[in-house]
Write a structure and sequence with these properties.
- It is built from five helices and five strands.
- With 149 residues, it is of the alpha+beta class.
- The chain folds into two domains: 74 residues, Ubiquitin-like (UB roll) (Roll), CATH 3.10.20; 65 residues, Orthogonal Bundle (DNA polymerase, domain 1), CATH 1.10.150.
């Protein structure tokens, strides 16, 4: 059994410690906001926070996060109040198909925690998530708007 702290709740999961965190979140805990994209940590659709740091959950083994705090997209909003990044996404019409958005939002939240007023270069360095719809200009505008919020 592995004990996990996810979104402020403690779970005991009976899985192989080498199981990717992504599959435990989705299949064992039913938290389907985190998406499977590539399975090799390249696209970023599966980005979550581990102790506040953005990580690609498809390449993180669940045993490596035992005793650490995992946050998924489901925990960003507080009640009916969206996180400022989520609101900026809506205000700037970022989502097209929306598949990559939860991972992208989680990466941006981590960036803004580290750099509250990121430059375009900071954004380029930190946000390596892939959006097949190509909404990168809206993403950049939404990041700057969220930084000002």
């Amino acid at each position: 059994m592995t004990t996990l702290s996810v979104n402020g709740k403690t779970y005991k999961v009976d899985v192989d410690p080498q199981t990717p965190l992504l599959w435990v979140l989705r299949d064992t805990l039913g938290l389907t906001g985190t998406k499977y994209g590539c399975g090799i940590g390249q696209c970023g659709s599966c980005t979550v926070h581990v102790d506040g740091e953005a990580m690609r959950s498809c390449v993180v083994q669940v045993g490596a996060v035992a005793g650490r705090h995992v946050t998924t997209i489901e925990a960003l909003a507080k009640g009916h109040v969206l996180h400022r990044v989520q609101q900026a996404w809506i205000d700037h019409d970022v989502p097209q198909c929306g598949y990559c958005q939860s991972g992208m939002i989680m990466a941006v939240v981590a960036l803004l925690k580290e750099k509250p007023q990121p430059t375009d270069a900071d954004i380029d360095d930190a946000i390596t998530n892939i959006c097949r719809c190509g909404t990168f200009q809206q993403v950049r505008a939404a990041i700057h708007a969220a930084a000002k919020a």
